[in-house]
């Protein structure tokens, strides 16, 4: 794979920036991390042009539906202008209807997805590559929707009058919580900062079959099951790896402990115990505030229909003013659709956060809105093999770098 110099996209190539209608201060702050801008567009381009079992027109239709569900009508319209499949007609085909049902679940209630749901995709005609592609279509759209929504708030746009997000017909079920993970491994029942494992429901690329292009796509990360699985959609993974590094591992922007805090908050909202464990651990280490991080992990998030969080206020309870404001914005933006408001942004500005820090906070939440949807719906967490099974009740309610 030939390395190329970073080149921020032009305005025409920058879908997120165009839809966000950035003011000068936010536009300048966003370019403090040009790799995020560039590779967000690269992920978008790969997603809708790479070959695969799903036609680009069907991918566009599914992405438009997800964007609408996440309260990003401009992003939905961007897909509609490319003449996507009419899902109202296409779902007469049961295989397409099955894809739409799964996309709705992955989009709005990823913690409810089960191995049987993934197996049903095989029955609908998808192979492992196709399942990863479908998952990325939904997850990347959730990411882009939050970037657009968050950046529009930072730019001062009032979208309160936007068309309400359409409801989806989700199955009435509890969160997926098996007694044991595959292989008889114990499963975590409560949020923790301890190290967890993760087992895939879809076959990753075997290590011996990885090409140089596959390995380059997740360079700097482990060759464990998760990244070998995502390597089935190589172009999107390559872009995602660069975004991850730029958002979380560079020195520019929000203090890194608060980026990790935002990732943990997003994981609580989406009910991803695995991702929360990784990033709560990092937030505690970097901030040297383990008690505050544990308070976040222990917070109860009541759930309504479709497992949507009914009340997010407990997540910031007991925190100092800055962390409470960061948590409240992160939680509101992570919700589907977003509940973030200009008031959340004003509060953070009053506390002294600079534009580059606010852009970084939005990107941190957006990225884990992507990551959680993959972790929750392509596999499941487990406790280490030598760990006793957790007996505490499940809390109503990542990935490694």
TrEMBL record:
NCBIfam families: ahpD_dom, peroxid_rel
Gene Ontology terms, MF aspect: peroxidase activity
Location of the Carboxymuconolactone decarboxylase-like domain: 236-304
One Pfam family, short name: CMD
Organism ancestry: Bacteria, Bacillati, Actinomycetota, Actinomycetes, Micrococcales
Feature: compositional bias, Low complexity: 384-401
Protein name as annotated: Peroxidase-related enzyme
PANTHER family in alphabetical order: CARBOXYMUCONOLACTONE DECARBOXYLASE-LIKE DOMAIN-CONTAINING PROTEIN, SI:CH211-175M2.5
């Amino acid at each position: 794979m030939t390395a190329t110099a970073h080149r921020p996209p032009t305005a025409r190539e920058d879908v997120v920036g165009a839809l966000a209608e950035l003011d000068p201060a936010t536009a300048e702050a966003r370019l403090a991390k040009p790799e995020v801008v560039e590779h967000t567009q690269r992920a978008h381009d790969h997603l809708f042009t790479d070959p695969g079992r799903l036609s680009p027109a069907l991918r566009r239709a599914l992405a438009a539906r997800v964007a609408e569900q996440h309260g990003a009508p401009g992003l939905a319209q961007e897909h509609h202008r490319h003449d996507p499949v009419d899902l109202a007609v296409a779902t007469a085909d049961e295989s397409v209807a099955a894809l739409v049902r799964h996309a709705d679940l992955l989009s709005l209630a990823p913690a409810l997805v089960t191995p049987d749901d993934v197996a049903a995709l095989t029955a609908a005609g998808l192979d492992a590559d196709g399942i990863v592609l479908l998952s990325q279509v939904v997850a990347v759209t959730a990411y882009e929707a939050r970037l657009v929504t968050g950046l529009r708030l930072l730019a001062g746009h009032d979208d309160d009058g936007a068309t309400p997000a359409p409801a989806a017909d989700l199955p009435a079920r509890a969160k997926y919580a098996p007694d044991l993970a595959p292989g008889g491994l114990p499963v975590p029942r409560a949020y923790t900062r301890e190290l967890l494992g993760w087992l895939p429901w879809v076959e990753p690329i075997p290590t011996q079959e990885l090409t140089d292009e596959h390995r380059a796509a997740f360079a700097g990360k482990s060759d464990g099951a998760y990244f070998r699985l995502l390597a089935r959609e190589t172009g999107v993974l390559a872009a995602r790896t660069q975004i991850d590094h730029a958002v979380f591992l560079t020195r520019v922007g929000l203090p890194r402990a608060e980026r990790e805090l935002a990732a943990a908050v997003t994981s609580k909202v989406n009910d991803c115990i695995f991702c929360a464990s990784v990033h709560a651990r990092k937030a505690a280490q970097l901030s040297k505030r383990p008690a505050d991080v544990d308070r976040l992990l222990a917070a109860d998030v009541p759930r309504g229909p479709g497992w949507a969080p009914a009340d997010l206020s407990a997540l910031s309870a007991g925190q100092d003013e800055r962390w409470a404001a960061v948590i409240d914005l992160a939680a509101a933006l992570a919700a589907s659709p977003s509940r973030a408001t200009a008031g959340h942004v004003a509060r953070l500005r009053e506390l002294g956060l600079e534009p580059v820090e606010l852009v970084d906070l939005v990107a941190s939440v957006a990225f884990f809105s992507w990551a959680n949807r993959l972790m929750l719906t392509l596999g499941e967490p487990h406790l280490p093999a030598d760990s006793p099974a957790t007996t505490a009740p499940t809390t109503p309610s990542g990935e490694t770098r």
